[in-house]
Amino acid sequence: MSTHSPAAAAATSKHTERAQAVRAFIAEAKRLAPDPANAVPDQLRQVALQLEALGRRRDLFPPDAFSVVPGRPASIYRLAEDVDGGYALYLSLGAPGKAQPPHDHTTWAIIAGVSGLERNEVYARKKSADPVRDTLAPERRVDVGPGQSIVLGPEEVHTIELVGDEPGAHLHFYGLALDRLSGRVVFESKEGGSYRTFAPPAAIYHARISPQALQDELRGDAEIAVLDVRESGRYARRHLLHAAPAPLWRLELLADRLVPRRSTRIVLVDDDETQAHQAAAKLARLGWTDIAVLAGGTDGWEREGRELFAGTNVPSKAFGEVIEHEKHTPWIGVDELHERVARGDDIVVVDSRTPEEFHNFTLPFSHSLPGAELVYRIRELAPDPKTFVVVNCAGRTRSIVGAQTLIDAGIPNRVASLRNGTMEWLLSGRELAYGRHAALPEPGAQSLAAARAQARNVAQRAGIGHIDAGALQAFEAEQGERTLYKFDVRTREEYETGHLEGWRWAPGGQLVQATDEYLATRRARVVLADWDGVRALTTGAWLAQLGAVEVYLYQPPALAPRHSGAEPRRVLRHRPEATGLRADSLRTALQAQKVALFDVESRVAYVRGHVPGARFAAPDRLAEFLPEDAASPIVLTSSDGVLAAAVAAELAWQTKRPVRYLVGGTRAWAAQGLALAAGAAGVLTGDDDQSISPYLFDDLAARDQGFREYLDWELGLVAQLERDGSEDIRLIAQA
Predict the structure, then answer these.
(1) I need a surface site. Which of 166, 279, 532, 557 has the fewest CB within 10 A?
(2) pLDDT band for position 10 (cuts 50, 70, 90)
(3) Which CATH superfamily is domain 208-312 in?
(4) Residue/partner pairs of 692-699 with CB below 8 Å, 24 or more apart
(5) Looking at the predicted structure, is the pLDDT value of residue 146 above 90?
């Protein structure tokens, strides 16, 4: 059973049609010339015929997606590139009269026309007695228009000029990407003479999509992922409703989790396109093929009068507000709760956040019961139907969703959410408890049977059901055409004790509360592992009502092979790996003051504890703070060193400077018994990297003001959703 009609039946956008055509061309080029470094002329001529055919598809390169950039009469757009820079395909645009002086490529090049006429004058290069001056002799002229092409060898020199009155669009296909051709030269004249290094284009762009076209696609039935590539703190200030945070410098760690299918339609967003094209280049090299940049970024979206949202996990938090607004979820205020607890009423308060959050702070009398565990375990805490059950969280969403979960399940108890959660509790002048641990109660046989019946009823009303092993195998076989996410929603301990291979861990409450941190592809298939007949069903029911994905349940066989341990962390690489540095070596370098150390994990983690001498900078601004001496050693650290290694590799590539990373990160430093420092004195980039919770404010007045602003913001989300008009929420009726 599914919650949407198959996305495969949706109309194909011109962007996706182009991506399919480019993928087919690249595949054929690789078949015809399987070794790009040693391709021979006969192979390249066959490839040229394929490029001509692609160029004749002028409809695939419309001006709203590809236009000459103001101030850049020659504009280059990347269409494809391998991780090693091979098989690099570009669309070159120019105004009439655009010209390039004599230059070589140092790799083979094929040019085919889309529109306009590009005149190529090809020259033979001959050495002269002067080692820095060569002569050029004309060899041939080739005019390249639609349906025509030219093949150039690595040593051949040519000029190009757009002749006539029509703007030009030409496909340029190279054996190696432009930004990797460090040995190219350009001559001072057509006769030759002195020459200099021919630098790569100052900017390479990617196909654009207009705000209106993006909104139309978001409201359509085809799969699409919108990724905001700014650091998460900047993202939280203003962003599109359905944009998932995926910061540029963290894509190596996030992209595969958020958008696992490489042919997924992806739209990249930032403020004004300054970072989105960099992100598009990175994703193209890492294998994604259907990428566009939102024209004008969030600035352009806002200029057209479209809605922008502040905050984090907005679709999920807005979902909670819609639930309360439409279903009138009961609530209790902190004063009444305090009075009831003080006089010993028959009442149970459950904290529906994660165990880690519960440990950080909670109400003094609450029990830990994360969202997906509520129906599964509530009877062990409230076996008497007369017991009043109150669900709390830190703010509003998980209180509301948790309470409504129990109500929809039909437990006999009176249920309410704690209005405004622990924020309201603190605003009332009361205290929280810190450092508490609470084991989750195991359901007995009778309780489990009741929970299963109730969860099954909710799942049926939400329109979701189980698939068998054959259907799952079919889904897995179709992963090249349809995105498939497979989640295990049990507790961390249960997952690490034994889970199905390839299934990700996503505790059910968090999958609903922070959906955009686990998946970014709308209209994708989501399969939840149902181990107990309860938790996957209640989680899936909420995901189905949230409406962004198709939801299915799968019951693993009793003897299914299981894998133990934490979820593997996959890191994608497209740069040469940076060199690691051990903690003892870093300590020696710091003592000698011979290294600049930066922490790139997060401001919150840095303030909590960092290597002494480290400063914190959001990765996308790190270059601003590097030492002026280009030879000065730079070391990066992060919590476990994984992010630091990825950032170090990119920074070293971009700056051509010595950049290393701390192996094992700050945890490895602490594991050596080395002291950590704390505090915000070394923070260089404010809260660019993440939105800072008011709970972390030292100033109580600022904290309380932050609480009030947060609560006002969340209460305003329903009206914002109505103005935006692109949400898919479909709540089930009361039983």
Answers:
(1) 557
(2) low
(3) Rhodanese-like domain (3.40.250.10)
(4) 692/233, 692/603, 692/604, 694/423, 695/361, 695/394, 696/604, 696/607
(5) yes
Q: Which amino acid is at 666?
A: T
Measured CA to CA, the distance from residue 431 to residue 429 in angstroms comes to 7
Please give the average per-residue pLDDT across 184-205, as a whole number.
Answer: 91
Arithmetic mean of pLDDT, 588-609:
96
Rounded to whole angstroms, the Cα distance separating 365 from 349 reads 7
Q: What is the pLDDT of residues 22-78, one digit of tens each?
A: 999 999 999 999 999 999 999 999 999 999 999 999 999 999 999 999 888 889 999
* 474: exposed, middle or buried (Cβ count in 10 Å: 0-12, 13-18, 19+): exposed
Domain definitions of the chain by residue range: 7-204, 208-312, 579-671
pLDDT for 7 beyond 80: no
Residue 551: its H or E element: strand 550-554
d(CA 672, CA 306): 52
Residue type at position 620: D
Q: Which tens digits make up the pLDDT trace of 483-541?
A: 999 999 999 999 999 999 999 999 999 999 999 999 999 999 999 999 999 999 999 99
Place of tokens 């009068």: 305
Query: CA 578 to CA 575: how far, in whole Å?
Result: 9
* pLDDT band at residue 8 using 50, 70 and 90 as cut-offs: very low
Sheet holding 415-418, edge to edge: 331-332, 415-418, 388-392, 347-351, 367-368
Q: For the residues of 212-260, what is the DSSP string, one character each?
A: HHHHHHHTSSS-EEEEE-S-HHHHHHSB-TTEEE--GGGHHHHHHHH--
Could you please report the per-residue DSSP string of 595-663? -EEEE-S-HHHHHH-B-TT-EE--GGGGGGGS-SSTTS-EEEE-SSSHHHHHHHHHHHHHH-S-EEEET
* Tokens (6 digits) for 57: 């598809």
Q: How far apart are CA 228 and CA 297, in angstroms?
A: 9
Instruction: Identify the helix (H) or strand (E) that includes residue 268.
Output: strand 265-269
- The model's pTM is 0.95
CA–CA separation, 539 vs 401, rounded Å?
Answer: 11
CATH of domain 579-671: 3.40.250.10
What CATH superfamily is the domain 7-204?
Jelly Rolls (2.60.120.10)
Distance, CA of 116 to CA of 19 (rounded, Å): 23
Instruction: Give the integer Cα–Cα distance in Å for 503 and 417.
Output: 32
595 vs 587: CA distance, rounded Å: 10
How far apart are the C-alpha atoms of 632 and 236, rounded to whole Å? Answer: 35
CA 151, CA 143: separation in Å to the nearest integer? 12
